Amino acid sequence: MYNNLEQKRDVTIDIFRAIAMIWVIFVHSLFWTGVFTTKIEYIVKSLFLIEMPLFFFLAGASNYMSKRKSILNFYFTRLQRILIPYWIYAGICILLTYIISVLNGSKIIDSLIMKWLIPMERQDVPLEILTWALWFIPVYLLIIMTFPFLRMYFDKQKNKFLKIMPLFVLAVCLFFMDVYKISGTTFFYYTRMLVFYCFWIYLGMFYNVLKENININKLKKAVFFIACVFVSILLVLTPYYSIDMQINKFPPNFLFLIYTLGFLSLMYYCSNHIVKIIKFLCKNIIIDWILKQYINSGYTIYLFHPLAMLLIKWSIEFLHIGNFMANHNYIKFFVYIILAIPLGAVLGKLFSWTEKVKIS
C-alpha cells in the first residue's frame, strides 16, 4: 500500500488518520454496547476519549499542507465533501425510518426529512444508534468555516511567540468559561466546541515543525507529558471538573484540553514506533486492505459505521445469544471490535463514492 501512495502524501498522517477512525470504533464499542457499566468501569473507559482531538489535529495538518485556495473555493470544495456524504447517509436513515415506522404502524413525523437535511437539527429516528455520532457534523462544519482565517493568521506571523499565541488564547478562553460556568445553551455549547477544536486544528498547522523535531528533546517531551498528567489531577480535585471524561468532553472544558494534550503528546513521543508497528502489520494483505479503507474513506466510515454496529446487534439477536453477551462484557466487547472494524472497512469501500460526488 505504501509504495502506491502519491509521493506528496505524508504516510504518517495517513496512518494516524486510520488509527483515529479505528479508535472511534473502539470507543463506540465501549460506550454503545452496554458493556462495563459500573461507576469505576465507566470512568476508566472515559479515559480513552481522545480520538476527536487527534482527528482535528490531523485535519489541521492535512488542510494546511494542501494547495492554498480562495476562501470561497475552499468552502465550496470542503462543504460539498462534508455535506453530500452526510445527505446520502441521511437519505438511508430516512428510508430505514419510514420502513420501520410502516412495519410498526407508528406515525411518521412530517418534518422528518427537513430535520435530517439540516445537520444542526436533532434527527428523529427509531434506531437511535444511527444518530449517536452525528454531533460531529455541525462542529466539523464550524471548524471548516474558521480554518481559512486561522491559516491566514498562521502564515502572516513570522514571530514565533505571535504564531503560537492563538493556542494560549483559546486555552485561556476555555478556562474562564469553566470558572464563570458559561454553558447551558446551544449557543455556548457550540462556542465551547469551536474554541476547543480550533485549538487542535490550529495546532495541526505546526505538524511539519513537530515532525522535524520528533527525534530530539525527548526529555522535554517526557516532562511535558508528566506536567499534563499532574495538571489534570490537580484540576480534578477542584470543584469545576469531573474525573469522568465523558462529562468533560460534552461540551469540552479546560481539563479535557489538558488531558488530551497529554495523551496525544504521548502518542507523538511514540509515533515512530507506532508507524513501524503499523507498517509491519500491513505485511498481512487483509490488514493492509482494511487500513487502506480507513485511510482513503475515513469520513465515510465515520458516517456509516453505526450501520455496522447495528448489523452486529441484529446478528446477536438473530442468533439468540444476547443474554449470553449481556453476562460476558469482555466477550461482547471483543466480538464488536473484531467485527466492527472490518465491517466499517467494507462499508467505507461500498460508500466511498459519496466523497467523490461533486457539484459542478
Task: Give a written overview of the molecule.
This protein is mainly alpha-helical. The chain has one domain (2-355). The chain has 17 helices and no strands. The chain has helices spanning 11-31, 39-46, 51-65, 71-104, 112-117, 136-156, 160-179, 186-203, 207-212, 218-236, 245-249, 254-269, 271-281, 285-296, 298-318, 322-326, 329-351. It is globular, with a radius of gyration of 21 Å.
Characteristics:
mainly alpha; single chain; 360 residues
Spatial shape: globular
Sheet-strand content, in percent, reads: under 5%
Overall pLDDT metric: 91
Query: Number of DSSP strands?
Result: 0
In angstroms, what separates the terminal alpha carbons? 31 Å
Helix and strand composition category: mainly alpha
Count of alpha/pi helices: 17
Biggest sheet: strands, sense, closure?
none
Low-confidence stretches: 2-7
As for the number of domains, it is: 1
Radius of gyration: 21 Å
Condensed summary:
This protein is an all-alpha fold. The chain has 17 helices and no strands.
